[in-house]
Write a structure and sequence with these properties.
alpha/beta; 4-stranded mixed beta sheet; 14 strands; binds pyridoxal-5'-phosphate
Length: 390
């Protein structure tokens, strides 16, 4: 036994259970094409739903801000990193979200793991959807308070927990959910969540990471313009950049500036990133047509897969899980798709429940009908191969 034994043992364990994760090197070629292992592939795994990561305006604005403010922000915003460009972008986010104010944070993961502890004390109860993202799960654990999970999107169960627990000596109840679930592509019922939070006086937090850019008013997410106490959105997905924000009241923002350690003790985002966020926020409200076309393509694609007999769960968005169930078959299918020019990542336990292994497809406004037809044809072929035992 030495101090590295645990590393070897845990890696061995992962390998033996076929759960070993590896980084794969890819080179982006266009908005929806990548090169990996010397082969060009159509990418169905990226969260760049609008193709903005390669939009010229984001690049130009990034360069402009880098030239003006430098390559790094040099310190936390509470020290000397609070350049006026942050405040300008926060004002734009607040206006677009119809909220009093907003606050930029360094990433969605960092936001979730630092917001929840900031908003909790030891007597807080957090009610969290069963399928919430790992960053929310970690945020709950770091909060060191009482945590209960409600059945996925089950508003009756949430109400039962709110009713049972409100008089049990808790200091406050936080309810947290996603607007569009990252592994399933289904949506939460924001109106009912708002209504329940009003009725039971709980503090509602919605992670709109996969809704921003695609759904809601001006494409600003499902929680845009709704009475959600705090909306968290990310800039690394449909916005094509990096970082995150919360949209909330002025008081809540001031509270976070005082208590959110992810903001207080971390160097602010680089100015170039703020520049590209600024450009993305200029473009997103003008992209209604792209959003409509993308959601229509997703509907057609889902129907085509369902017709062949694939299970796409409860997806109603640009995220489409193809739930295979068996881990080995999911891995084989993903490998076979790769051999046929399609990059589509598998998600297995522990990211999704055991027996729910899937290929998670994310559609982009840049995918053409040809790309989609090619993929449907491949899924069909795979099914037929299976039937013939090949
Ligand atoms: C629902 C959800 N929240 C938060 C995050 C983390 O966001 P970021 O990639 O900006 O760290 C993700 C990322 O996958 C996500 O899916």
């Amino acid at each position: 036994m030495n101090r590295y034994t645990f590393i070897e043992a845990e890696l061995e364990n992962r390998l033996s259970r076929n759960l070993y994760r590896r980084l794969k090197t890819v080179r982006p070629v266009s908005g929806v094409e990548i090169e990996a292992d010397g082969r060009m592939m159509v990418n169905f795994s990226s969260n760049d739903y609008l193709g903005l990561s390669r939009h010229p305006l984001l690049g130009e604005r990034a360069v402009e801000y880098q030239r003006k403010y430098g390559s790094g922000s040099t310190a936390s915003r509470l020290v000397c990193g609070n350049y006026d460009c942050f405040e300008k972008v926060e004002k734009r986010i607040a206006e677009l979200m119809e909220r009093e104010d907003s606050l930029i944070l360094n990433s969605g993961f960092q936001a979730n793991i630092s917001l929840l502890p900031a908003l909790s004390d030891r007597d807080t109860l957090i009610l969290s959807d069963w399928l919430n993202h790992n960053s929310i799960v970690q945020g709950c654990l770091l909060s060191r308070c009482h945590i209960k999970r409600f059945r996925h999107n089950d508003m009756n169960h949430l109400e039962e927990l709110l009713r049972e627990n409100r008089d049990k000596g808790v200091s406050r109840i936080l309810v947290i959910t996603e607007s569009v679930f990252s592994m399933d592509g289904d949506r939460s019922d924001i109106d009912t969540l708002v209504e329940l939070s009003e009725r039971y006086d709980s503090f509602l937090i919605v992670d709109d990471a996969h809704g921003v850019g695609i759904l809601g008013k001006r494409g600003m997410g499902l929680a845009c313009g709704k009475d959600v106490d705090l909306v968290m959105g990310t800039m690394g997905k449909a916005c094509g950049s990096f970082g995150a924000y919360v949209a909330c009241s002025k008081d809540t923002k001031d509270y976070l500036i005082n208590f959110c350690y992810g903001l207080i003790y971390s160097t602010a985002l680089p100015p170039a990133v703020i520049g590209s966020i600024d450009a993305a926020l200029e473009l997103i409200p003008t992209m209604d047509k792209e959003r409509r076309d993308l959601l229509r393509k997703a509907d057609m694609f889902r129907s085509a897969l369902n017709e062949i007999g694939y299970d796409t769960g409860k997806s109603t968005t640009q995220i489409i899980p193809v739930i295979i169930g068996d881990e080995n078959e999911t891995l084989d299918l993903s490998k076979w798709l790769e051999d046929n020019g399609i990059f589509a990542t598998t998600f297995r336990y522990p990211t999704v429940a055991s027996g729910q292994s899937r290929i998670r497809l994310s559609l982009s406004a840049l995918h053409t009908s040809q790309h989609l037809e090619q993929l449907v044809a491949l899924f069909k072929k795979w099914r037929e191969r299976g039937k013939h035992g090949k």
